[in-house]
Design brief:
The chain contains 16 helices and 13 strands. The radius of gyration is 22 Å and the shape is globular. An eight-stranded parallel barrel has the order 1-2-3-4-9-10-11-13, surrounded by seven helices. The protein has a single domain, classed as TIM Barrel (Alpha-Beta Barrel). It is an alpha/beta fold. The structure holds flavin mononucleotide. Flavin mononucleotide binds next to strand 4, helix 7, strand 10 and helix 11.
Length: 443
């Protein structure tokens, strides 16, 4: 039977998910390189018993920084500090499969799994754009299919590296002078693939979770396939109940061919709540953020997503759907591109309206209302198989998170939809995921 308990991840992003959040009177843009700021957010999320928090990453700085906050601490370095300032909450960090080597990454996540005592997850992304490639000695970003083929092999290599050690490989036999059972309990990987050649073994013992939790955030066809095969959590942007349900059904259906059961993957759509004591108070909070939007930034953001220069069109004119590239020629985020096009078609939006419509959380589902109204929507999504939980994206920090933990979480708890205490210690336990036994043990 499907559990009614939902999983909640907090997506931590500098001053918040609304693109004007840094201009909100209560946010602190000057703190985004201050670890105490993140410790405060992490502890607040932990006090509400959230499953995990998540830090995104991009390997590039663009001129858009002129208008919007961006650029900050590197995720894994930040998470290692959060690991020692928290006890139970899961810690998920992004590392790109296109611009990193599996051996380093397997080792960093295994280390972080030890440091956090089994609370870490890896969000694998393939990254976007030639603008990233040029920071890594390449002229061009690999094409979409190639990136995903590489990512698929990359994940296999990481899992293999984490399985090089059995749990009981270390003997510490001081008497006999045998430290580790190298012959029977540690094995090389001998991986020779299309993209990677990795001998192994990994130079760190098997970590508390066996494998850090595998998270995926691509929603294109290739992204869904990779998630169905390998992911244990998927983050996705879905802007309606209907699209979330069809995404959910599609990904869960694909899992069968990889011999996986539906429960082995938790689907967490993005969810950005603007919370007020009354609906009109929530609307005022939303307006306060929307009034601070800088159109120039919105134009840069949408030009990137739609792969067209929107500066050449009138701001109050229609979004030029006829001039957009066909979806099969989209080089960056295909799923995001399709979602925006659908939004424009359904709602007949001007460029300015599309900027405002997507400023709150880049197109993720946004809702302004009371805690009860918000909990109603969350309940409906979870009970109708649109989601296993949510990737919570407060519009501004810390106020938006305070509202969520003090108003929405208790409402969910009262309805029996969310835990009131942690029952486990590791992120796998919070998510109800099995600990992989490891290759050698399963023979
Ligand atoms: C919630 C969420 C978080 C993401 N985090 C990152 C990130 O940290 N770094 C990144 O390069 N891409 C990130 N992405 C983008 C995805 O990895 C992916 O590129 C995007 O969803 C497009 O995938 P697609 O080409 O399969 O549609 C994120 C996407 C979502 C929905």
């Amino acid at each position: 039977m499907k559990s009614n308990h939902m999983h909640l991840n907090l997506f931590v992003l500098n001053t918040g998910h609304h693109e004007a959040s840094w201009r909100h009177p209560d946010t602190m843009p000057e703190k985004i390189t201050d670890i105490d700021y993140y410790i405060q957010l992490a502890q607040m999320a932990e006090s509400a018993k959230l499953d995990s928090l998540f830090i995104a990453d991009a390997l590039v700085l663009t001129p858009a920084i002129q208008y919007k906050i961006g650029a900050g601490l590197e995720p894994l370095t930040m998470l290692s500090a959060l690991a020692v300032a928290t006890e139970r909450i899961g810690l998920i960090g992004t590392v790109s499969t296109t611009y990193s080597e599996p051996y380093n990454v397997a080792r960093m996540f295994a280390s972080l799994d030890f440091i956090s005592r089994g609370r870490v997850g890896w969000n694998s992304v393939t990254s976007v754009g030639d603008i990233t490639a040029v920071n890594f000695g390449r002229d061009q970003h690999p094409e979409h299919g190639d990136r995903y083929a590489r990512a698929q092999e990359y994940v296999q290599v990481l899992k293999g590296l984490w399985d090089c050690w059995q749990d009981d490989a270390l003997l510490y036999d001081k008497q006999a002078g045998i430290y580790a059972d190298y012959d029977h309990k540690i094995s090389p990987l001998h991986h020779q693939g299309q993209y990677y050649s990795v001998q192994g073994p990994l130079n760190i013992p098997r970590s508390p979770q066996g494998h850090p939790v595998l998270v995926q955030a691509g929603s294109s066809d290739a992204g869904k396939e990779l998630a169905a095969e390998t992911a244990e959590v998927i983050f996705t942007a879905q802007n309606s109940l209907a699209s979330a349900r069809s995404f959910y059904a599609d990904v869960k259906r694909r899992m069968a061919k990889y011999g996986r059961s539906r429960d082995e993957l938790k689907i967490l759509p993005g969810f950005s709540p603007i919370i007020g004591a009354t609906e009109s108070e929530a609307r005022e909070k939303e307006a306060m953020l929307n009034e601070r939007i800088t159109p120039a930034f919105g134009l840069i953001r949408l030009s990137n997503s739609l792969e067209i220069d929107l500066f050449q069109y009138p701001l109050d004119g229609p979004v030029p759907l006829e001039d957009l590239p066909p979806v099969d020629q989209v080089k960056g985020q295909k799923a995001r591109f399709e979602m925006l096009v659908e939004m424009v078609r359904n709602e007949n939006l001007t460029i300015r309206q599309l900027i405002v419509r997507t400023a709150s959380a880049r197109g993720h589902y946004t809702i302004a209302g009371t805690a009860k109204q918000i909990a109603d929507v969350m309940e409906e999504w979870v009970l109708t198989e649109a989601a296993d939980g949510f990737n919570v994206m407060p519009p501004y920090f810390p106020g938006g998170l305070e509202d969520f933990v003090s108003q929405v979480v208790p409402e969910l708890q009262n309805r029996g939809l969310f835990r009131t205490e942690y029952s486990g210690r590791t992120l796998r336990e919070h998510l109800g995921l099995k600990r992989p036994s490891g290759v050698l043990q399963s023979v």
